[in-house]
Description:
The complex is a heterotrimer of chains A (354), B (332) and C (78).
Chain A: H1 3-20, E1 24-30, H2 31-39, E2 50-57, H3 59-62, H4 65-76, E3 80-84, H5 98-103, E4 108-110, H6 114-123, E5 128-133, H7 140-153, E6 158-162, H8 167-176, E7 183-187, H9 188-194, H10 200-206, E8 209-213, H11 217-232, E9 237-240, H12 252-261, E10 262-269, E11 273-282, H13 291-294, H14 310-314, H15 346-353
Parallel strand pairs in A: 1-2, 1-7, 3-4, 3-5, 5-6, 7-8, 8-9
Antiparallel strand pairs in A: 10-11
Chain B: H1 15-29, E1 39-41, E2 48-55, E3 61-62, E4 65-66, H2 67-81, E5 84-96, H3 101-117, E6 122-130, E7 138-148, E8 162-165, H4 171-178, E9 185-187, H5 197-205, E10 210-214, H6 220-232, E11 234-239, H7 247-256, E12 270-273, H8 278-287, E13 295-302, E14 308-311, E15 317-319
Parallel strand pairs in B: 5-6, 11-14
Antiparallel strand pairs in B: 1-2, 2-7, 3-4, 5-7, 8-12, 8-13, 10-12, 11-13, 14-15
Helix pairs in contact in B: 2-3, 5-8
Chain C: E1 5-13, E2 16-21, E3 24-29, E4 41-45, E5 48-53, H1 55-65
Antiparallel strand pairs in C: 1-2, 1-4, 2-3, 4-5
Amino acid sequence: xxxxxxxxxxxxxxxxxxxxxxxxxxxxxxxxxxxxxxxxxxxxxxxxxxxxxxxxxxxxxxxxxxxxxxxxxxxxxxxxxxxxxxxxxxxxxxxxxxxxxxxxxxxxxxxxxxxxxxxxxxxxxxxxxxxxxxxxxxxxxxxxxxxxxxxxxxxxxxxxxxxxxxxxxxxxxxxxxxxxxxxxxxxxxxxxxxxxxxxxxxxxxxxxxxxxxxxxxxxxxxxxxxxxxxxxxxxxxxxxxxxxxxxxxxxxxxxxxxxxxxxxxxxxxxxxxxxxxxxxxxxxxxxxxxxxxxxxxxxxxxxxxxxxxxxxxxxxxxxxxxxxxxxxxxxxxxxxxxxxxxxxxxxxxxxxxx
Amino acid sequence: xxxxxxxxxxxxxxxxxxxxxxxxxxxxxxxxxxxxxxxxxxxxxxxxxxxxxxxxxxxxxxxxxxxxxxxxxxxxxxxxxxxxxxxxxxxxxxxxxxxxxxxxxxxxxxxxxxxxxxxxxxxxxxxxxxxxxxxxxxxxxxxxxxxxxxxxxxxxxxxxxxxxxxxxxxxxxxxxxxxxxxxxxxxxxxxxxxxxxxxxxxxxxxxxxxxxxxxxxxxxxxxxxxxxxxxxxxxxxxxxxxxxxxxxxxxxxxxxxxxxxxxxxxxxxxxxxxxxxxxxxxxxxxxxxxxxxxxxxxxxxxxxxxxxxxxxxxxxxxxxxxxxxxxxxxxx
Amino acid sequence: xxxxxxxxxxxxxxxxxxxxxxxxxxxxxxxxxxxxxxxxxxxxxxxxxxxxxxxxxxxxxxxxxxxxxxxxxxxxxx
Lengths: 354, 332, 78
């Protein structure tokens, strides 16, 4: 896509924004969008009338502090190898982080895929391997697949600490918190799995358009243009910009794999609290692969990080820069909370990219 | 500080490395400097420049190079960007019990060949062996001496200077990372490990008044620009569409979720020259071996609020921050 | 929520496949998609193919995706 084409999209956005005649508040639900917007420097090319608000779609950020503390308890066990996606390793606990536990000798490994954790377990049957399962509908089916593979291959030393989340209930929760949103840029890859229909009810109930959008800078610009035009035309509905990957009905096979292993359950979110039917719990027949029951992890009382306002940022209640700690003392180097850690966190994206 | 510990990111060449140096090591050494330069003039020996570097790369052999040749290139490049032609090197090997002699031979043969090719023979050295588990196969430390080239006064960055890079970035970091344990990923990206002296020499031969140079190793181009901007109290604007990146390297960065600006190079030169010298400097670099894809990628300006900015290809702009430390594959 | 990249399947062994994106070969698990074949373009997230995309769609992504790769010799083919 050349500069002319992107300029044309930007002109469309500007025209529609002007026609609306007020600030249009767009929530990019997905952390990968937050990252793409920051990295592409897209805020600088959008008209002033567009406010981009980061939503609760950074999986590391929305992981509750209780879950973080229990992951750290797992890392402290001498008999467990903890495998995690990279971003999780620096999330601060109340007193420590996985990175610091690793420096103290805990066996914590960064992996690229849950299949790496499964293969590690297969190669060392004498050692327990736990994968830290964070992520939304894009990531969770793959993790479910590793559980099914562990079962069929008889790999008995593999388990998952599962705190997966579902995106639509979180969007509902954001709206019920009173955040005024004119349109949702919905996550392209979650939409690949769940299909655009999944947003239809929310969109019609609240009269808010949703556009499932891809992740290249021009995708994001085009998604915003479509969204602003729907807002202008007062046209709610679930639309798709990311047509090259999002199909009607989503990926049934992936969804069915997910539902074989997990059942929809209530989940605790950082900032948004307990949201009914917004998470995934192991079905009883797969309890052996649930790290919580396998290691009899104790309940952890609700805790919060001193001074951290990530919860308010995740709800869209404050902008990252409105947090009194933003940039001082909270930086990606010395994060007080997860939104400053994850490369998809809205605080880290704002701090890094401006 | 008593409960603070070294974490991997302290070795990443980014902000945390900088913090370790300025807050712990330099005060403890009693150094009056706020930074240990990559290379320094030998006190009392006019024209001689001295440097040292340690190599702990894993795996030892990677596409496009190995720890042996890398240990030579790293050190001669520190000399070259300080304006000194490498003369001679020393090499210290720390070997882990159980390492095969074949590996030792392959690594040292590679180092010897690289040193000869650079015209800087390895003239002294030391070998130590530690018990199995106390080192990871093999570590190398090299030190080097070079002679300052009088034409290269390197007076420092100035407002209006142009930023040049000698070729496509991020190849070394990707080549090494792709062969690390735990990353299921094969690539045809090869490390760019090479001496940069021929590039420096080409600039000298063309009579370019180079204001400053650096080889963007750990922390990549982002770290070099952030350091220079900070050191000189100026700002730098980079132009995304002018920065050369091989398509396969760009794709690999997308796979791993990395920003090519922060990924390591081991054979690239970043040079800052006056605007009126930029075209000639570019021509000089392009005529030198390894400089075929050189480009002018940015401009130095008076200090603005942001030290380093990237103009993106859509006309957007964003900060370029000093990378934090360890490059981690980003996944979610 | 997550990065996913397009790649073309070059070899299939059970549920595991090798797939290539511009000189980079990655492994992908195919258990989440129906009836995968060698030569198919897939979208890979965290080691899993999450959808099949047709070739022209893949090239559309790659064209967008050329990003910083255009610096040397223009956008390269796939």
